[in-house]
Give the backbone structure.
Amino acid sequence: MPLDVILLVLFGALLHATWNAIVKAGSDKSLDAALISAGGAVSALPFLAFLPLPHASAWPFIGASAILQFAYFQLVAAAYRAGDIGLVYPLMRGCAPLLIAATSGFILKENLSGGALAGTMTICAGVLTLALEARRGSRRAVVLSLANACVIASYTYVDGIGARISGNAVSYTLWLSLLPPVLLFSWAVSQRGAFAVVRHVRRNWWRGLIGGAGSIASYGLALWAMTKAPVATVAALRETAILFALVISITVFKEKASIWRYVAGVVIAIGGLVLKLA
């Protein structure tokens, strides 16, 4: 992978960890997740007029991805309610690239080099190591996290292909961002009523804008990178977001870090180096 691609994916990983921290810190994780999705859509709107429309062949992928993104945000909120971030985040983000690396040869006909595969697996091993510090997590949290890993792998495939055939990865990302918040808020209103949803939005709209801008930028950088490098490799490198989440947990949430977090950090860093040298 070229150095500029690696650096941009790492910056996207930082943004991803930041918006996840916003959801984790919120009092209502489901509505905060919907707000962040809406914030991404608002951030995208000013740029749509300056970008070409995605090719017609990409629109079915945008529709399919919107449904998967709806499921993703719902599972993120449910998993964070059920378990600690030290268990949930590594399982969600670590298992997804493992699934992609194991199946990309069949689905995308991408053959990873030995070095790229080694780097991918090393990063995944490092991310999953973080789950060792939360062995007492609930069974429900584990099930939700693993289910979301499957959703993440699914929309990564859909969007990796969709961005490639769209003609413009940035345009694809911005148009995609408009649909999930419609689904999320429609669901929220049907479950809680319009008054409760509007009240939460009025009090927390700024969280949605900040988190949404980071979310859309993070995913846009990942999709752009997927047009320059193998999807499985980009997906694995993006999981270094857990390192940034570690820093945030220590400096912002004042959480105590176990030895497993530092071990995982070293393993992930080695994986990144292997990817660069591959």
Observations:
- The chain has a mean pLDDT of 83.
- The CA atoms of residues 17 and 242 lie 7 Å apart.
- The chain is about 80% helix and 0% strand.
